[in-house]
Amino acid sequence: MINATELLEEFKELYEEIKSCYQCGTCAGGCPVFKQYPQFNPRRIMEKLLLEEFSENIFDEQQVWYCTACYTCSTRCPQGIDVGHVIVEMKNIAVKLKNVPAGITAEMDAILESGSTAAISQSVLKRREKLGLPELPKPDVNEIQKLMDALGATKQLKGLKEAAN
């Protein structure tokens, strides 16, 4: 069993980088997700961390899953803080704690089964054909499964599903 307290200690190493944040809001101002979904606010996530509210509950924060890891926040931060990396690390720890939204596990399942997170509709295929566009390549699901196995993602997915039940 993974100890949340140990993971929290690992995460605290990032705190040295975080504590130079002066809450200017540049990370949120440039964030494409925040522009469409204001509930996701990288500045607020950093604020929670700055206020040392990073108890084990910080990894229950579902908002981090809206981050697309575009790293605009990191690129624009005047203090050079890698905000995107901090959020990715929060996600990584949440995965280790098996605290992952059902939609993420469903996407992992879809990738393993079909090589894609979303099926291409028949209407899209017909429009492509009408426009004379080439047929879309079929992903090699066996190769994807081998890669996911090698990365440990298949095993993680199994653990996430077991934890959800």
Looking at the structure, what is the overall shape?
globular
The major sheet is characterized as: none
Number of strands: 0
> What separation lies between the terminal Cα atoms?
17 Å
For this structure, what is the CATH class of the largest domain? Mainly Alpha
Structural class: mainly alpha
Q: Look at the structure and give the mean pLDDT.
A: 87
Count the DSSP helices. 11
String of helices and strands: HHHHHHHHHHH
Name of the CATH architecture of the largest domain: Orthogonal Bundle
Describe this structure in words.
By secondary structure, this protein is mainly alpha-helical. The protein folds into two domains: about 5-95, Fumarate Reductase Iron-sulfur Protein, Chain B, domain 2 (Orthogonal Bundle), CATH 1.10.1060.10; about 100-165, no CATH class. Helices cover about 60% and strands about 0% of the residues. Helix 8 crosses helix 10 (about 140-150) and helix 8 (about 100-115) packs across helix 11. About 15% of the residues are buried. The model has no long low-confidence stretch (mean pLDDT about 85).
